Amino acid sequence: MFQKTHFKLLGISSLCLLSAGCTEKSNDSSVKLPSKPNVIIILADDIGYGDLSCNGEPTINTPNVDNLATQGVRFTDAHAVAATSTPSRYSLLTGNYSWRRNDTHIAAGDAAMIIQPEEYTFAQMFQQAGYTTAAVGKWHLGLGRARGEQDWNGEIDYGPREIGFDYSYIMAATGDRVPCVYVENQQIVGLDAENDPIAVSYTTPFPGEPLGKDHPELLTVMKPSPNHGHDQAIVNGISRIGYMKGGEKALWLDENIADSITAHAVSFIRENKDAPFFLYFGTNDIHVPRVPHPRFRGKSGMGPRGDAILEFDWSVGKVVQAIKDIGAENNTIIIITSDNGPVIDDGYMDQAVELLGDHRPWSDFRGGKYSNFEAGTRIPLIVALPGYTQQSVSDASVSQIDFFASFAHLIGANLPKDAAKDSQNQIDVLLGNTTVGRTHVIESAGSLSISDGEWKYIEPSKRPRYNNLTDIELGNDRLPQLYNLKNDIGEKNNLYLDNPDKLNELKNILESEKNKF
Q1: In angstroms, rounded to a whole number, what is the distance separating the alpha carbons of residues 36 and 149?
Q2: Which is it for the CA torsion 75, 77, 80, 81, positive or negative?
């Protein structure tokens, strides 16, 4: 079923190193790619394009990420499929657009698994090619076969194992949603189920359990922003979304989340040094509530959000060092990216807005998380295989939807007929052999948009234009929107009346994609 193949990385001239417009490398190198390289995806949470210093913002310093960028390809036009977490992650792991289904919205803490049993996944592809696979960190794709029916006190019946992950150490939901526990191989870690079982509800409070909205004096670590809904169950001095009781010994301490998940990622790398592996490492740091470890507090000058970015960079450094320690630096592809764009106030009073200063998480783009504008889905992307990829900046249009087909091609995997239907093989683009990327990228934030790298069309929508809680423009309008991204990266000038041919061209492509399957 699987055939080993070797690919030559073409050489790159010094001119190309300085130019993002170079379309092809010269073939002055005979270095071969390994047939089955290790693959690590480090998926940050809510990190914007401007949150990494290698992308040009002088207000932040991310040396470990920057160092990896000097050994690989840094993309300027890379996109997540969606402007929020769950649909973005779903698309990355299935190669299918989340908007083709109506149940891939932001998952509640007691949501059933979003990925259905019949869907073939990225992890299964690696697993069937002889890789050992792991999911570590933030999950946010649901667990169990039915909402609210998980056996939190036993073994969860449907999770990462059923979709191709040999090992998993994940957060049950998200940092701001209960239950606030780690789940290792589909059982809660450290739980005394007999004497202190966990109970979770997203409908009814538990009698006697204090809630943040009623007991602000118990919120000793962080208080919620008004009207965001993070005012229910209190766990370790922070109120969350949802209700829970019990499981005291299993509860995480927020300031230790990065240490815990990073340690488990590193352990997985070390324990699998003798065979190819795939690691999906979802970090949590920048997502609310932001409680960086004391080692990082006050280091950025921007409060917990800035400090959490430094913590994320530390995790990247630990993973890279683990690869060096096992001698696999030249046999491991490391991808750094984010699930969606940035948000500053997303539900907690952590002074992220007040202390932002001159920092621009969104860089030159408009909008942010939740938005149809570019900052919603234009995310950081670095792809590095040290010793093989060379430092370059690519302006190719790329999408995380294509990771699936690209790596299937790289390792010689034959995908089932209906697998990864929306994914395209872009491995030469990802490895820097060419800057000729996708002909069009489709993005979702309630409405759909499509970009060909120069022009972007956002379909008309009756949805709200603005999110007052997060202070983010959502990019919705009852009129069609058409922007020339080459001349107007900030999407300020709607040119749909002046360019009817381009408007109809992109609209027709989008409609064709909608009706494709």
Answers
A1: 39
A2: negative
Q: Residue 273, exposed/middle/buried by CB under 10 A (0-12, 13-18, 19+)?
A: middle
Residues 6+ apart with CB under 8 A from 381: 74, 75, 78, 335, 336, 337, 398
3-state secondary structure of 73: strand
Give the phi and the psi of residue 284 in degrees, each rounded to 5: -120, -15
Residue 30 confidence (pLDDT): 54
Tokens 């190193």, residue located: 17
Q: What letter represents residue 346's amino acid?
A: D
What is the distance between the alpha carbons of residues 54 and 46, in angstroms, rounded to a whole number? 17
Residue positions counted in the chain: 517
For the record, the structure tokens of 101 come out as 């289904």
Predicted TM-score (pTM) of the model is 0.94
On whether the CB atoms of residues 26 and 10 are closer than 8 A, the answer is yes
Beta strands in 283-417 (DSSP E): 332-338, 381-384, 392-399
Distance between CA 182 and CA 483 in Å, rounded?
44
- Take residue 440 and report the two structure tokens written for it: 């069009």
Low-confidence ranges of the chain (pLDDT < 70): 1-30
8 - beta bridge partners? 32
Give one DSSP letter per residue of 340-373, joined into a string. Answer: S---S-SSB-SSTTTT-TT--TTTT-S--TT-SS
Segment (H or E) for 171: strand 167-171
Distance of CA 441 to the CA centre of its chain: 17
| pLDDT (0 to 100) of residue 32 | 83
